Amino acid sequence: MTKSTPPPPNWKSWQDLIIRHAPELDMPVSEEQARMFAIHADELFRWNRKINLTAITDPTEAAIKHFLDALVPAHQIPDNTSLLDVGTGGGFPGIPLKVIKPSLTVTLVDATLKKINFVRQVIRTMNLDNITAVQDRAESLINDPLFAGRFDTVICRAFDALPGFVSLSHGLIRTNGRLIAMKGPQVETELKQLETLKLNINGRVMTARDRFSIDVYHYTLPVLGDQRSLIILTPDRGIT
Ligand code: SAH
Q1: Which residue has a Cα nearest atom 8 of ligand 1?
Q2: E strands present in 60-150
Q3: Cα torsion 203, 208, 211, 212: sign
Q4: Of 40, 46, 41, 42, nearest in space to 126 by CA
Q5: What's the rounded mean pLDDT across residues 154-178?
Q6: 147, 159, 168 from 144: Cα distances, Å
Q7: Residue 21 pLDDT > 50
Q8: What spacing in Å lies between the alpha carbon of 112 and ligand 1's midpoint?
Q9: Which terminus, N or C, of the chain has the lesser number of Cβ atoms within 10 Å?
């Protein structure tokens, strides 16, 4: 039997669902922003028939797990700052964050050209400015002066375990920049690994625990009730 394609979403009620539930995450969404999310989702479902962008094909589930979920880290990202999303895939969380915080300068990176072509198409269709998509491996960015030490925030979702993410991205943030990892509910093992993870900071070797203050914020997705967490690494005062 062939897998049945879900019916095309009713975009008005899809947008209403987001608008109705966003306040539960303390991040209200306007009608215009919900309309932008719908453009992104519509492209996502179209392209997903040809290239693998997401395992989620149910529109309601996508509204919650892709778009509402992406609102949560917005609280941790100041206006008028630069954001790098590594392993952006179908543009998550970078594109919804740009929609919800238009003053951000956003860079999306993915190793797969097809995915970068997709996010470029979304950016064009939505007419967003100050957002660019780059095809590269995250590990290579540190060798590029346009990336090394340039970002106020580096974020990722479903990209790598914490030690890998911190190792490859700590050199991409400014001295006072932060790292944010969007995770499922189980983070204890990965957090423990940070205690012994060695980082080379300007020639000084220190553990990730010494370099960063680490905050964990647990939250629940609206409607579905799934548990998620944000790991936020901010530089420890006194270390420059
Ligand atoms: N962040 C998106 C996609 C997660 S899937 C989301 O949460 O929906 C992981 C993505 O990371 C894939 O798109 C894959 O192509 C990309 N990726 C994996 N290893 C990478 C690497 N070393 N450098 C850059 N991107 C990578």
Answers
A1: 92
A2: 82-86, 105-110, 131-135
A3: positive
A4: 40
A5: 96
A6: 5, 21, 13
A7: yes
A8: 8
A9: N
Nearest to 18 by CA among 44, 45, 46, 40: 40
CA of 137 to the centre of ligand 1 (A): 9
Q: Name the residue type at position 84.
A: L
Residue 179 Cα distances to 102, 158, 167, angstroms:
20, 14, 11
Token look-up 């996502």 returns 44
Q: pLDDT digits over 202-237, tens only? A: 889 999 999 999 999 999 999 999 999 999 999 875
Distance CA 65, CA 222 (A): 9
Residue 162 tokens read as 């914490």
Q: 109-129, pLDDT tens digit by residue?
A: 999 999 999 999 999 999 999
Cα of 171 from ligand 1 centre, angstroms: 19
| Residue 230 near residue 73, CB atoms below 8 Å | yes
Q: Average pLDDT of the chain?
A: 94
Distance CA 201, CA 188 (A): 25
Cβ atoms of 64 and 58 closer than 8 Å: no
> Which among 178, 174, 169, 167 has a CA at the least distance from the CA of 149?
174
